[in-house]
Amino acid sequence: MVTRESELVQKLVLDLLRRIVCATQENVREKRHSAEVDDGAAEKETLPVFGEGRDTGGLVPGKSLVFSALQICLRVLVRKLPRISPKLSGAKTRSQAGTRARPRPGARPGPRPDLQQQPGFEPSQTCPGRLGEVWSLSDSDCELVSSALFVLSELPSLCSPEGSVSVLPTVLYLLLGVLRELVHRPHHLQSPGPAGLVRSCLRSFRAVLSSPMSRQEKSRESWAQLLQSALSSVLLLWENDDPEVDLDRSSLLTALSQFLLCSSEVCSVSLCRLSLDKFICAIDSKDPQVQTVQLWSDSSRRWKDLVLRLRRNGSGSGGSESHRESGPGAEPENRPQLVSLLLRCSSRSYWMRTL
């Protein structure tokens, strides 16, 4: 149905899928809550195994709601934004480059939906793979893409911990692909892009990063590895050597702040250092749109609070002994770590105002 040209039909299909996903999500949530109350699982700090994938993580085509929803979202996104597909954008895949993806240990390999081989699939009527395609989308197209992003962000919550690990790589890949299209703007275009679609993409990132599955014992390690890879991909989006492409740094900084606020435990030392560099460059920038982090006026009280937090958390290169109390006019010794924490605190207020 989503391969038809009628925008009304596509909208109805996405709306129905959204309702089905929300209803299924509520059903799974009620089952988990009932099991916690009846079996006392709430005291075990682990959720009962409910949702698709069960203990193996496999999603069976034709029987899996998550797999079918993923197919529909893929069709919509690749139809509207062909560049997110490696085949349509001309980018080399791992198989074309002579390498193969390394499977997750103990994972059961499952089929992946290949849209180009599915009957009835046709990319967007505009030139596939053309940079800046997102700026040519109509309001109804942006609404369809936003609905697909919402469904994508909710799919891990329909799965068991093992099932969420199976679907998470595809979800992150598609979200990063849409984000890449939104932040890489052709130089000749003056408009900042569809603001509503940018907000939808960032909301979807927030929903995935704050998913309870990232804190489950069975899936925590795999989620951390995948989210670290996603954070590295976000940082790589800053690398733009094409003079014909402008970079939307404000949206990238907002996405980066979501990783720091929602999944700070997955940030390694090197990733935190690279993230901090991006925020410091934003503070020094003269562009008001790039200054996405607003520092609070009561800086002396914030500095003192952050020093205490550093001591309590035991962070910093020299341990708690390397820190010292800072007065209103003093400069802390571990200024980079303090700036990092300050940015995380202050970006929360900006982030909530933006979204």
UniProtKB/TrEMBL annotation:
Coiled-coil residue windows: none
One Pfam family here: HEAT_HEATR5A
Assigned GO CC terms: cytosol; endocytic vesicle; Golgi apparatus; membrane
GO biological process, one term: endocytosis
Biased composition (Polar residues): 115-126
Region of interest (Disordered), residue spans: 88-126, 312-334
Name of protein: Neurochondrin
Organism: Mugilogobius chulae (yellowstripe goby)
